[in-house]
Write a structure and sequence with these properties.
50% of the residues lie in helices and 12% in strands. It is an alpha/beta fold and 880 residues long.
């Protein structure tokens, strides 16, 4: 039997809007209702594959029910502006899906749906009304059902008869008696659903109740019905759907058509629906790419390369220092090719020798005058360097450009960026790699050519799109003079790696194991028995049922046992404190002490991380595989783990750390007189703040006062609330508010700066750093108060954190250039927040120390001096 799905547009617009909160694109335009509604359409089309489909919307002008009864739906709150803005775009998306939209002046969607359903029923078509509105229950029959897509539930006659105690068509009679608060249908005061159904069963119909209402036995009920006969008749008229609406369209015309994928691509890109973009059918290019298998063809390719070339390497793995080169793709002047050098599979054609290809390409790749373009070109740089070729003249990186244009975007993979900017769905790695292969060397040359050459082609096209956007947004100086040159710096750091004391790590592992065993025994003793400490469910049972501790935060699976909860409970009982210690030591052992020695590169004997420029929204670098920026700084074990990071023989590790750079930036950006004076006098800013907050002389400031003042100072940068500060300091929100108020009394320049910053960010939609790095703050325009407050914190913090990132990157680049220029053997190894770590030959210590300090302290011309604090030692712990 053919199926028809009739969608109640208004019902699902509201459901989508309230089900998904706070979703916006990078411009701050709300997209939650659009996204939810689109997913609902996709779900129905994909899972139900209806023969016929349509969406009905309410009339924008008053309906006949409003004319009959002015108060109809009058109590409903006004549609939120954030939802109203989205409705035209929802209709655009429905149209792009080629789904008929039916909207008739003066009619509600329910009447339209009912009329179509009845026509479909007469034509032997099974109809599903997609809605959450119970008014449509009266339409149910053997061939008409209600489908709730959010709960994936079908509701039929049987369910409604059991639910209400009357058959579906009599639902309006129930509503006439009990009324409906949602639609403002009056009904009879004092009659609820149970009484309404009982009366209908007793009298047989609403007509008989009206006719024989004086026979109602209960005096109070009889009087209430008698006084509201006209309301009952009115309510029946309001609750009864009109299934005789004259429609110009027939059910057979509601056949789904092939969507307008190009229009959907445009809309999904505008609203930044990355996941939905991937559902668009592939728009494969018909271009044919050349596989280079002979020397003559390779020479033709090389002769064709003039001013710039796109390069993309294919290897046997993700780690560029362990992977072997399998092939190289090149793109120049709209011509793409793939040069295989390491494909090994049954039937593979003869390929050019890798050494020969690299020798022939070397003059091109090492020529700084020929600009090299890539997507994450740092990877290609390291791969080629491991093969003995120095990639010079990096001119553009499309991943980096995409990131600078939208740092809030979580993914800047070539596949995602191509979809967003070119509306092209390229071949994915998983498609070409398939199953059963150990690495890319087993991919056929034909498939590798399609995949890799397409990567180069897409990168070339992206450069043409992204390059002007970088200039238009004023990001060209940041891009070309800092971020792009930094690629070489980071590649050198990654390849340098850092030495680990393996024996010390092994000893620490055994010691941690003993401590964890002891902690586990103590936890079992305190808990009165053994349980899985790492199981949240078992931990809930122990803490809140067996021990009877106070349950603080409710979650879906019971009560939370997260860090915040355990820290609060630790003030009341020993067990949570011991569990926190167990978690902390387990993480140290399993994340660092046991893991780091296992991932030492056997070729270098050192530990290598990857520094990422395109991950954090603020512009800070991140570290991965392994993340060396998360190694604990404070506490005994943090120091001991850093003690295992050591220098090579006849070398020292040198740590250089910016002192209070974020507070110095706050002074510069706010031009607050008090902060400027404090830093220019080179005093202790935390002692000064403590003196102000507690009303004592600087000499009388205690360590505890200074600690509190330090929390306030950094809390201001992060837009901390009185409640947040109270949690940090263990004081009441009132006391915390007093600290914040007193701070702003003393530093009115900071208060004015923050207020102006937030106001400007709301108007422009973004904030900027001192080097014009932009970050959009769409949260500022959210209808949700909590989200807006988050936006205000981001607006305050992002320019400061981002400017700190700009400064340390400038310092890194300048130090790297000076080291090269002066011929030093000192190596920059790590960047961790505001700290740089170097490995310095013993005979270069004085020169390196002076060079690093000078370049760090002159990396930016602020209104207050930058200060770098240096330390030396055989280990990172000694140097820090």
């Amino acid at each position: 039997m053919p199926t028809l799905y009739l969608i109640d547009g208004n019902s699902y617009i509201y459901r989508a809007f309230y089900a998904i909160r706070g979703l916006t694109n990078s411009k701050g335009f709300p997209t939650n209702a659009i996204y939810g509604f689109t997913n609902m359409l996709l779900k129905i089309q994909r899972e139900k594959q209806p023969d016929f489909i349509a969406v009905a919307f309410d009339s924008p002008v008053p309906t006949k029910r409003h004319i009959v009864y002015e108060a109809y739906k009058a109590q409903r709150p006004k549609m939120p502006d954030e939802l109203r803005q989205q409705i035209p775009y929802i209709k655009e998306i429905v149209s792009a899906f080629k789904i008929p939209i039916i909207e008739l002046e003066g009619l509600e969607a329910d009447d339209i749906l009912g009329s179509i359903a009845k026509k479909a029923e007469s034509e032997n078509i099974e109809t599903y009304i997609v809605t959450s509105d119970k008014d449509t229950y009266q339409l149910l029959s053997p061939r008409v059902k209600v489908y709730d897509s959010m709960r994936d539930k079908v509701i039929g006659e049987k369910e409604i008869s059991e639910r209400f105690g009357v058959e579906p068509k009599r639902i309006p009679e129930v509503m006439a008696l009990m009324g409906d608060a949602i639609d403002n249908i009056p009904g009879v005061p004092g009659i609820g659903e149970k009484t309404a159904v009982a009366l209908l069963k007793e009298f047989g119909s609403l007509d008989k109740i009206i006719k024989d209402h004086l026979k109602i036995k209960q005096p109070k009920l009889r009087a209430s019905v008698s006084e509201n006969i006209e309301n009952i008749k009115l309510s029946l008229a309001l609750a009864t759907l009109d299934t005789t609406v004259p429609l110009e369209i027939s059910v057979r015309e509601l056949t789904p058509e092939e969507p307008d994928w190009a229009e959907l691509l445009r809309l999904f890109r505008e609203f930044e629906f990355g996941r939905l973009l991937k559902l668009i059918p592939e728009q494969r290019t018909t271009e044919k790419y050349l596989s280079i298998l002979d020397k003559h063809s390779l020479r033709d390719v090389i002769n064709n390369i003039k001013a710039e070339v796109v390069i993309d390497t294919e290897t046997t793995g993700k780690d560029p220092m362990r992977a072997s080169l399998v092939g190289i793709s090149l793109s120049t002047d709209g011509s793409e090719c793939y040069i295989p050098v390491g494909h090994f599979y049954s039937g593979a054609p003869e390929q050019l020798q890798k050494d020969y290809v690299l020798k022939e390409l070397k003059a091109i790749l090492e020529n700084p005058e020929i600009k090299k373009i890539g997507h994450n070109i740092k990877y290609d740089l390291v791969v080629l360097r491991m093969e003995g070729v120095e990639l010079k003249g990096i001119g553009f990186d499309t991943m980096l450009a995409s990131y600078l244009l939208n740092p809030n975007k979580p993914n800047h993979s070539l596949e995602d960026v191509a979809l967003n900017y070119l509306a092209v769905k390229k071949i994915s790695f998983d498609e070409v790699f398939g199953k059963g292969k150990k690495d890319f060397s087993e991919v056929s040359i034909e498939d590798a050519t399609k995949y890799s050459a397409e990567d180069a082609a897409v990168t070339a096209k992206l450069k043409k799109v992204l390059e002007p956007s970088i200039k238009e947004q004023g990001l060209d100086t940041l891009f070309y003079e800092l971020e792009l040159p930094l690629i070489d710096v980071l590649a050198d750091m990654e390849m340098a790696g850092v030495k680990i004391d393996m024996a010390l790590m092994a000893a620490m592992s055994k010691e941690l194991e003993r401590e964890l065993d002891g902690l586990q025994r103590r936890i079992y003793f305190l808990a009165g028995g053994e349980f899985n400490i790492n199981s949240p469910k078992q931990l809930q049972e122990v803490l809140f049922e067996r021990m009877g501790l106070r349950a603080i935060k409710k979650i879906k699976t019971g009560y939370s046992t997260d860090v915040g909860v355990l820290e609060e409970l630790a003030l009341e009982h020993e067990l949570p404190r011991e569990i926190l210690e167990h978690r902390s030591l387990s993480k140290l052992k399993n994340t660092y002490v046991d893991v780091l020695p296992r991932i030492i590169n056997p070729r270098t004997g050192r530990l290598h991380t990857s520094f990422n420029q395109t991950v954090t929204a603020t512009g800070r670098l991140s570290s991965s595989e392994p993340n060396l920026q998360n190694i604990p700084i404070r506490g005994e074990w943090g120091r001991r783990i850093r003690a295992a990071f050591i220098s090579e023989s006849r070398h020292l590790l040198m740590s250089s750390d910016y002192s209070q750079i974020e507070l110095r930036l706050l002074a510069h950006l706010s031009q607050d007189a008090g902060l400027l004076d404090a830093f220019r006098a080179d005093g202790d800013i935390h002692t000064k703040t403590a003196s102000e907050l507690f009303g004592v002389s600087p000499e009388a400031v205690t360590p505890e006062m200074r600690r509190r003042a330090k929390t306030v100072n950094f809390g201001i940068i992060y837009g901390i609330s009185p409640y947040g500060l109270s949690q940090e300091l263990g004081i009441t929100p009132q006391e915390a508010k007093m600290f914040i108020d007193k701070y702003f009394e003393r530093h009115s320049g900071v208060r004015q700066y923050i207020d102006t910053l937030i106001r400007d960010a709301k108007e422009k939609g973004y904030v900027e750093t001192i080097l014009c790095r932009r970050r959009a703050i769409p949260e500022l325009r959210s209808p949700n108060k909590t989200t807006r407050q988050l936006g205000e914190r981001l607006a305050v913090n992002s320019p400061i954190q981002g400017s700190a990132a700009d400064i340390i990157k400038c310092a890194m680049l300048n130090i790297w250039r000076r080291i090269k220029m002066e011929g030093l053997k000192t190596k920059m190894l790590l960047q961790v927040h505001d700290e740089l770590l170097f490995e310095v030959p013993e005979d270069e210590v004085d020169r390196a120390n002076a060079l690093v300090k000078e370049e760090m302290e002159k990396a930016a011309g602020l209104s207050v001096p930058l200060k770098a604090e240096l330390g030396l030692g055989r280990s990172w712990a000694e140097a820090h």
